[in-house]
């Protein structure tokens, strides 16, 4: 029997999971989990490139585990774990930093973006974290990395690092491929549809969280930015707001853009925004309710992330041991 190909992906607990997190990542993880060996991580080491309130970081990390499961990621069929519980991530990251060029890191668009937003905290971790991301992926001999298109540059760098290391030491790392889903890959802000929906968007009403109440969700969609036209038509260049709402509605209902355009022909934006909001309310209702139930059972969540970390650590240890041997380190006893 052919061995399943392996997937790795993760989300930072730097803020609560959003509708964009679900439609752009977790929903696709669930669909992929049946046909692949999957490692899905909460990348808390990445989160500290920005200052975090410790109690809030712990709370969000546990909540994120519960939401992963509530979204449909069965911990019996997927390895769900917390990044900091597998020390091999940090160990391999240092090795890979020594095989990552300064110029490569300086060209990362996310470094430039985050530096401009955190001018008072441009730390070394913010600069070198793509090497940690490469370690996350390469530790598990990953075949496929499901990502949003804004992360494509990081996977390409990971491939370059793997190929560079392999050129010196032989066939050590599997060179991964990225996977960008066609629908829902990039959910935009409800208030600034030129920008990706972000965890930090809540104050402006541009973001919907998985744990939001129906009233909060409906209010956000009714206030969503559209345009001066009245036609529900997919045109991501001239109708960014409506096109974003159509992408969300399509992902929530499974309807094509053509079906959506026909269904709302001759109707106003008010009717359409209400329909989108209602579809998201019903999409997220079972997720929120399941997550709330899981969060009341801390013992179960602890069991899930402990088993996940143990399973991940066993796989990661094999890769790290091979890397250390190739480098000439004395074997750990």
Describe this structure in words.
The protein is mostly helical and 333 residues long. It has two domains: 205 residues, 3-Layer(aba) Sandwich (Rossmann fold), CATH 3.40.50; 94 residues, Tyrosyl-Transfer RNA Synthetase. 54% of the residues lie in helices and 7% in strands. The protein is built from 13 helices and five strands. The longest helix has 30 residues. The mean pLDDT is 92.
List the helices and strands and how they pair.
Elements: E1 6-11, H1 19-32, E2 37-42, H2 44-47, H3 54-70, E3 78-82, H4 88-97, H5 102-106, H6 109-117, H7 124-138, E4 144-146, H8 152-169, E5 177-179, H9 214-222, H10 240-253, H11 257-263, H12 269-295, H13 298-327
Parallel strand pairs: 1-2, 2-3, 4-5
Brief sketch in words of this structure:
The protein is mainly alpha-helical and 333 residues long.
List keywords for this structure.
three-stranded parallel beta sheet, Tyrosyl-Transfer RNA Synthetase, two-stranded parallel sheet, 333 residues, 7% strand, 5 strands, 2 domains, Rossmann fold, mainly alpha, 13 helices
């Amino acid at each position: 029997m052919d061995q399943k190909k392996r997937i790795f992906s993760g989300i930072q607990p730097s803020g609560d999971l959003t509708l964009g997190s679900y439609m752009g990542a977790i929903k696709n993880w669930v669909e992929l989990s049946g046909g692949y060996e999957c490692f899905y991580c909460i990348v808390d080491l990445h989160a500290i490139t920005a200052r975090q309130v410790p109690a809030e970081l712990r709370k969000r990390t546990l909540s994120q585990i519960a939401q992963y499961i509530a979204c449909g990621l069965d911990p019996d069929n997927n390895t769900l774990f917390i990044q900091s519980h597998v020390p091999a991530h940090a160990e391999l990251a240092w090795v890979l930093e020594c095989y990552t060029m300064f110029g490569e890191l300086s060209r990362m668009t996310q470094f430039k973006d985050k530096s401009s937003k955190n001018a008072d905290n441009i730390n070394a971790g913010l600069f070198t974290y793509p090497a940690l991301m490469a370690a996350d992926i390469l530790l598990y001999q990953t075949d496929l990395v499901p990502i949003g298109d804004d992360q494509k540059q990081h996977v390409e760098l990971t491939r370059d690092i793997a190929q560079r290391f392999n050129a010196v030491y032989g066939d050590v790392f599997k060179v991964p491929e990225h996977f960008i889903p066609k629908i829902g890959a990039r959910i935009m802000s409800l208030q600034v549809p030129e920008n990706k929906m972000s965890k930090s968007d809540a104050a402006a009403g541009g973001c919907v969280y998985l744990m939001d109440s129906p009233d909060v969700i409906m209010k956000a969609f009714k206030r969503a930015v559209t345009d001066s036209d009245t036609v529900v038509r997919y045109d991501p260049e001239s109708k960014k707001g409506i096109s974003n709402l159509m992408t969300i509605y399509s992902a929530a209902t499974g309807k094509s853009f053509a079906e959506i355009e026909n269904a709302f022909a001759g109707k106003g934006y008010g009717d359409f925004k209400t329909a989108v909001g209602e579809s998201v309310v019903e999409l997220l209702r079972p997720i929120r309710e399941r997550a709330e139930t899981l969060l009341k059972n801390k013992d179960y969540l602890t069991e899930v992330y402990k088993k996940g970390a143990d399973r991940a650590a066993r796989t990661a240890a094999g890769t790290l041991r091979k890397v250390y041997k190739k480098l000439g380190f004395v074997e750990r006893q």
